[in-house]
Amino acid sequence: MTSSYDEVYGSWRKDPEGFWMDQASGIDWFEKPKIAFDPDQGVYGRWFPDGVTNTCHNCLDRHVEGGRGDQAAIIYDSPITGAKRTISYSEMLADVEAFSGALSDRGIRKGDRVIIYMPMVPEALVAMLACARLGAVHSVVFGGFAASELATRIEDCEAKLVVSASCGIEPGRIVAYKPLLDAAIEQSSHKPDVTIILQREEHRCELIKDRDFDFHALLQANAGRKVTCTPVASTDPLYVLYTSGTTGQPKGVVRDNGGHMAALHWSMHSIYGVKPGEVFWAASDIGWVVGHSYIVYGPLLHGNTTILFEGKPVGTPDAGTFWRVIDEHNVVVLFTAPTAFRAIRKEDPQGSLISDYDLSGFCALFLAGERADPDTIQWAERLLKVPVIDHWWQTETGWTIAGNPMGLGLLPIKHGSPAVPMPGYDVQVIDDAGHPVAAGTLGNIVVKLPLPPGCLPTLWNADDRFQDAYLAEFPGYYKTADAGFIDDNGYLFIMARTDDIINVAGHRLSTGGMEEAVSGHPDVAECAVIGIADSMKGQIPAGFIVINSGVDRSDDEIEKEVVKLVRDKIGPVAAFKTVMAVKRLPKTRSGKILRATMQKIADGESWKMPATIDDPAILDEVSEVLAKRGLKSRDS
Ligand code: COA
Ligand code: AMP
């Protein structure tokens, strides 16, 4: 099939508003928008400002009304617990109506915020969709975050209610959520009125009288109840998803209803190339944007069956799990992070487990979340014999900025590049002064405003922070904070972040946030956290600490405490396990820590002595410490 990409992208360029009005017709509206885009609303304009709709209606009711009631909406496959369950669109609708009734009885109304802190279980999706049904704004918090991260989010969005579970399950350990939730509520100055707790048999918890309610008891008590969808403005928020910023204070990315649906619906057929009724699997977590867009909303909006997988690519029980799920549930498209494939490859380098399964119905593997290294892509291509498609996006955009649109017909694949911009995105590469750079030259990747439907209109309660963080530096453009280049054929290459964000196993983390936690240790005088290359996780954080003079304790003891501190403050997901005490940190004469140079030394890359360095001998000290730890250094 020849690709219609040029034609489709060209049609958007010619008439952006007409293009998106056409896509808006792919969803149901209570009041159809007459205006595509109003540049005078919000920080940089708003999409479909006069439209009235409901996301839950579009995910469930309309499919049931349209004849998909008996089709599986969700296939829950949990190798970690041994559970498997198929839930049809009708069953899902009934549960969501019942849970909406329970939320509504507890005072949840349009615009109220509900935190969802849950593992990968169907009840989490019921809670998300019930919020959408009532026009309430959900904010899902990833289970690998610690209590204080949860507290920050409860406080920032002033959650009226929290839906949680008694536990999550990680290989070899139960993660008791309730103590984390109770600690978070204790720490937050804003207190939610009510919590609803899913009791899991693997580890039940005590409920606090008159505050904690049992999820399933509420579901049963409300079974059969009919709760209509609350009409919401297209521009009303559907959810807030917190993501790492450059400080310990995460950014609350806001997603609207109408633009989000139009964009995701388009992406399902045009980017992922799936047809309604087919099985789509995003092996991520609902706590991340990939989970929001492609475990929950995208597939359900488009009438697909979505896989909810509670397990890991390896160890649950082995590196053949992904192939088993694809075979057993007839998965057509899988979307995951490259790190998952690196983990599988490490366990089963020859891919010998693949031959145990029938993957004949499997059509494509999409990768995102971090740079897809050509080595991993080639390995997957060779063994799976399907296109392996890199695509680039961010929590902020909610869907692909650049990709290779399978539904429009694939363009030639270039390893190391997520290919070309999608309609809606005018992607440019500019230098620090804002001037366009020549093809092949590295620079700041920016998107010309307005951003397309689905992208964040602002940050929760923080228009000024949104403006400062994304729009101020390059007026008229959205700063992606990624650096890269565009080649002569218009293909994008994403090379690095321009801020302090690192990508650990596809999880986005701020080294600045980690430094804030580390510097909270009473014996630490100063510190620097950098991301160093890791063959499995892409990057891992490494902390350098200078211990206060006069402290009479071993470095080893303090280093262990620092590791625990970050785990307690940010959570296990930070994968913060490497801390090194150093005598001094390398700095410029004006006192700026030379993190980039330290990173190059650690990664064994070539580096130049910064002209402004205060004392070059300190870099030798850092090198020595790295070498002693068996980490790469310039001598390695
Ligand atoms: N709840 C509680 N803890 C969690 C968690 C959750 N939902 N998810 C991860 N953690 C914990 C892990 O148990 C681990 O704890 P440990 O330090 O006690 O071992 C820690 O957080 C780090 O987790 P992770 O970085 O995921 O490493 P891992 O070794 O457990 O697994 C992979 C590595 C590659 C298998 C895993 O990261 C993976 O499946 N990645 C797939 C990609 C993905 O989901 N990306 C998200 C965006 S697309
Ligand atoms: P997140 O918001 O967690 O989705 O992380 C977004 C960041 O991950 C981007 O800004 C990039 O730095 C990185 N990223 C995501 N997808 C890709 C990709 N396909 N190639 C390179 N980097 C990527």
Automatic annotation (TrEMBL):
Q: Enumerate the spans annotated as Acetyl-coenzyme A synthetase N-terminal domain.
A: 5-59
Q: Which UniProt keywords apply?
A: Ligase, Metal-binding
Any single GO CC term annotated in Swiss-Prot or TrEMBL for this entry:
intracellular organelle lumen
- UniProt domain AMP-binding enzyme C-terminal: residue ranges: 514-592
Specify the superkingdom. Bacteria
Query: What GO molecular functions are on record for this protein?
Result: metal ion binding; propionate-CoA ligase activity
Family to which this protein belongs: Belongs to the ATP-dependent AMP-binding enzyme family.
Its protein name is Acyl-coenzyme A synthetase/AMP-(Fatty) acid ligase
Which species is this UniProt entry from? Hoeflea phototrophica (strain DSM 17068 / NCIMB 14078 / DFL-43)
